[in-house]
């Protein structure tokens, strides 16, 4: 079976600048499933207007978590086979924290905070011809501002917003402790999620309050290096 992975292009020295795309690609590598990347810089062309998207055996799948569930079912893969009910519940809660709260701290740091925006826009929009670049960036950035406001995180003062995101990082650092992975000696599906988000915060050569906060947790930095070496060597 050929798996086509439609995702954003790479950038910032990362496998992907989208934590959701990087989550899925990390999972595919942990699961040992071969895939072919189809770069897609415009998510509006995706079926639900978001990336990643997978096309496998004529079936189009959207949403990183749904894709993982479907591919796990089709291929008989369970990276969480060694987890008990309590650990699975903990992984679910941490995943929701990253995807519904920490994510918006990352979005704010890249798209809204002037310091982060100055570093991020050339990566995301640098290939767009100059005559239309200003219009496109203004339109997309405006939509992201509205999305952040609608979610609620965008309504907070920057210091409060970053404090909320750092509280997530602190919790993850405590939960990881000195383990190589979040649930022990081998990675689980949660580690794919964790690296998708933590890698995008810890590893890029960007300087924002969120990036700086993440690098204050040595075990998270070491964890990202460990995941990168395992899943994206070379």
TrEMBL record:
Pfam family, one: GST_N_4
Cellular component terms per the entry's GO annotation: cytoplasm
Superkingdom of the source species: Bacteria
Domain GST N-terminal: 8-79
InterPro entries to which the protein is assigned, alphabetical: FAX/IsoI-like, Glutathione-S-Trfase_C_sf, Glutathione_S-Trfase, Glutathione_S-Trfase_N, Metaxin_GST, Mito_Protein_Transport_Metaxin, Thioredoxin-like_fold, Thioredoxin-like_sf
Matches recorded under CDD domains: GST_C_Metaxin (cd03193), GST_N_Metaxin_like (cd03080)
PROSITE patterns from the UniProt entry: GST_NTER
Protein name as annotated: GST N-terminal domain-containing protein
């Amino acid at each position: 079976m050929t798996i086509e992975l439609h995702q954003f292009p790479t950038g910032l020295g990362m496998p992907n600048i989208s934590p959701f795309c990087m989550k899925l690609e990390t999972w595919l590598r942990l699961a040992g499933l071969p895939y072919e990347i189809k770069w897609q810089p415009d998510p509006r062309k995706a079926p639900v207007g978001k990336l990643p998207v997978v096309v496998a055996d004529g079936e189009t799948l959207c949403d990183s978590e749904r894709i993982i569930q479907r591919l796990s079912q089709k291929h008989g893969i369970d990276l969480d086979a060694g987890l008990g009910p309590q650990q699975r519940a903990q992984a679910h809660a941490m995943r929701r924290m990253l995807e519904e709260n920490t994510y918006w701290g990352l979005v704010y740091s890249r798209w809204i905070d002037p310091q982060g925006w100055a570093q991020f826009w050339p990566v995301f929009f640098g290939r767009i011809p100059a005559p239309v670049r200003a219009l496109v960036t203004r339109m997309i950035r405006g939509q992201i501002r509205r999305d952040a406001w609608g979610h609620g995180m965008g309504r907070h003062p920057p210091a409060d917003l970053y404090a909320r995101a750092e509280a997530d990082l602190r919790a993850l650092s405590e939960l990881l402790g000195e383990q190589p992975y979040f649930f022990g000696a081998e990675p689980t599906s949660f580690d794919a999620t964790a690296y998708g988000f933590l890698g995008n915060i810890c590893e890029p050569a960007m300087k924002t309050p969120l990036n700086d906060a993440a690098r204050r947790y040595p075990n998270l930095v070491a964890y990202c290096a460990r995941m990168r070496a395992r899943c994206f060597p070379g």
